Amino acid sequence: MSCLVIADHITNPVDLxxxxxxxxxxxxxxxxxxxxxxAQFQQSLEGIPVLAHDDQRIPILHHVIETSRDIQTVEKAxxxxxxxxxxxxxxxxREGFRYSAPLIxxxxxxxxxxxxxxxxxxxNIDIKVHSLNNPTHQRPHTSTTHTPPEVSGYPCYQICYSxxxxxxxxxxxxxxxxLVARGLDLDGISTPTFYxxxxxxxxxxxxxxxxxxxxxxxxxxxxxGCTNRLLLREARKGRASVANIDMLVExxxxxxxxxxxxxxxxYLGLKINKPQCAIYFLRAKEAWGYDHMLSPERCVDLSFGxxxxxxxxxxxxxxxxxxxxxxxxxxxxxxxxSPKTPRTxxxxxxxxxxxxxSHPWSARCAAVTLSSxxxxxxxxxxxxVLVLQRSSVATAxxxxxxxxxxxxxxxxx
Length: 413
Known about the structure:
By secondary structure, this protein is of the alpha+beta class. Helix content is about 30%, strand content about 10%.
């Protein structure tokens, strides 16, 4: 494939000039005499249609970044691109070609020197890649554990990519720190980026990002199944470091006491410890409270299900902003037992019941024993042993057939 053959397919004279410049000048910068005799160059163009559109020229610059070892060669190419076509450094996502932002290519390759150079020449540090509501797209470079089946249809699980995401997945902590230091828009970090960051041991970066990200995002919001379920699953499987979990707890303003009596902080909390796992809930006194904690489609968002005997990780799970409890309407649910033995579900309701029976509120506590075969997770059954009503007081009893489960709650078949 020669430059002229490719150019024959270009009708826009500006594009023709651009591609000729790419072939004659930029490629020669790499030390090649002619582009048509270079098999690697031909291969790099294979399957990439050259059309009269600015965005589709970018793959050539990617090739320069990927094949050049010295920064001077790449900088010459970058200057040529920027001079002829301003804005060409930002790139874009194009199906069929990896990341069309040169900055993300440099980050993925771990080339901190090129990253700094691109930023110096005006590359957009906040470049993000979004392709929502397209089931054909897959999240790149991500294991299936990051996309639980029950939430795989959510738009945020398609492609949400940023420069920080690239640094995290390339395991380039220095580049991540550079991006933050150079003014990365932390308020605009995509949710999957935050998931990936939780899995690292980069506590410093995590703290900086979390301080900006947590106050406004849906991380702690049970109305959005995307974030809370994923963080819960990841933490329960031990992927998140203890340091990061502690940092998340701190940023979320959570302060539970060791004895299991929760402080009067406004949050929805989950604490998992080995060998016995306990779930603590704070429910809102607002009339609409509890149904907003769990996604309406999934009644048992926070149940253990088949993961009952996993190595429970230290984890606290919060939602800020909704609940001003002032020490009231405290609900604690303790799960006792194992998959092979009956389980006792002790639920302590209204005005702060405590696990300690000597506590003055213990008279308001109650217990229900279920067999292991009755413990399940998944969509709410029509009837259940325990349901948390929308009223100001949580009650035990049989779920009605009038749709009370739609309010949200913990349902056991």
